[in-house]
């Protein structure tokens, strides 16, 4: 069976995050290690990298028009090691900037979504002497399906 529209969107979003590499003009190589659906933090030897987790989706139905409007929350947790002497807030802000920049290159996820909405973010996460910078971002992906048909 084909993937649901939601699954297609999550896979497209993950692929978009995998484009975040210095070879593609970003400041970080977060895209080299993108995980989905894990709740544990990435280990230092897995960095740089990011985790995407889906939240509880909300939907509205427009029966007359024949579609359902969905809002899929995604939590993104990005981490990278920064060198001694560097400003970890700056390192954290570049993680956020890279992710937002990537979302801006394909905000409709190849016509699968209506838009990506940035809800909130936090940067400047520092894990002490491990020299790990981080950014946590909460987004919502808006998309439509036919009424009660998650595959179309």
Report on the structure:
The protein has 152 residues and is α+β, with helices and mostly antiparallel strands. The chain has a single domain, classed as Phage minor tail protein U (Alpha-Beta Plaits), CATH 3.30.70. The chain has two helices and six strands; from the N terminus they run H-E-E-E-E-H-E-E. Strands 1, 2, 3, 4, 5 and 6 form a six-stranded mixed sheet that branches. The longest helix is centred in the middle third of the chain and has 18 residues. The two termini are 13 Å apart.
Layout: helices, strands, pairs:
Blueprint: H1 5-17, E1 34-36, E2 49-54, E3 58-62, E4 67-81, H2 88-105, E5 115-126, E6 132-146
Parallel strand pairs: 1-2
Antiparallel strand pairs: 2-4, 3-4, 4-6, 5-6
Concise synopsis of the structure shown:
By secondary structure, the protein is an alpha+beta fold.
Write a concise keyword list for the protein shown above.
alpha+beta; 6-stranded mixed beta sheet; single chain; Alpha-Beta Plaits; 152 residues
The helix/strand class is: alpha+beta
Gross CATH architecture: 2-Layer Sandwich
User: Can you tell me the CATH topology?
Assistant: Alpha-Beta Plaits
SSE run: HEEEEHEE
How many domain modules? 1
- Rounded mean pLDDT is 91
Radius of gyration over C-alpha positions, nearest whole angstrom: 17 Å
Number of strands: 6
Query: What about the largest sheet?
Result: 6 strands, mixed
Ends apart, CA distance between termini = 13 Å
For the record, the CATH class is Alpha Beta
**Mass-distribution shape:** elongated
CATH superfamily, by name, is: Phage minor tail protein U
Low-pLDDT windows of residues: none
Strand content: 35-45%
